[in-house]
Amino acid sequence: MIDVQGKKILVIDEDPLVLRVVGLALSEQEAQIYTAANGMEGLAQFYAHRPDLVILDVMMPGIDNWDICTRLRHVSDVPILMLSAMGGDSHIVRGLKCGADDYVTKPFTVEVLVARVEALLRRATLPSFPAR
């Protein structure tokens, strides 16, 4: 199991309750939590804090997080977990194709979210095998 302690996690979601629940759950694991209520604020937080992982909701006012995900993927290989009420296969596929590493649908349980965060951080720290 990977230790979330000290990891910087950026949560981008317009819903203050989701920001609070996710922030509290990961703070209990002693992660450093940064939050943003919209995409532009999320980009600013990303560049200011260089998080180890980004959690983002899909539907946001203004610039949506499909675009944010694509922008982040162009400049970083940071693990991205999409968190969305849109749970159909087409949305999940779109999220993964635009660069997300995982996709969790709302409603979600804190235990599953924390386990997925741990899994993404674990994979991000694994060494790469040299090409043959």
Mean pLDDT: 90
Could you name the CATH homologous superfamily? Answer: Response regulator
Backbone shape = globular
Give the helix/strand class: alpha/beta
Total strand count, please?
5
Strand content: 15-25%
Keywords:
132 residues, alpha/beta, Rossmann fold, 5-stranded parallel sheet, 5 helices, globular
Structural account:
The model has no long low-confidence stretch (mean pLDDT 90). This protein has one domain (8-113): 3-Layer(aba) Sandwich (Rossmann fold). Helix content is 45%, strand content 18%. The protein has 132 residues and is α/β, with parallel strands linked by helices. It has helices at 16-27, 39-49, 65-75, 89-97, 110-125, and strands at residues 8-12, 32-36, 53-57, 80-84, 102-105. Helix 3 (65-75) links the parallel strand 3 and strand 4 (80-84). The chain is globular and about 45 Å long. Strands 2-1-3-4-5 form a 5-stranded parallel sheet, with helices on both faces.
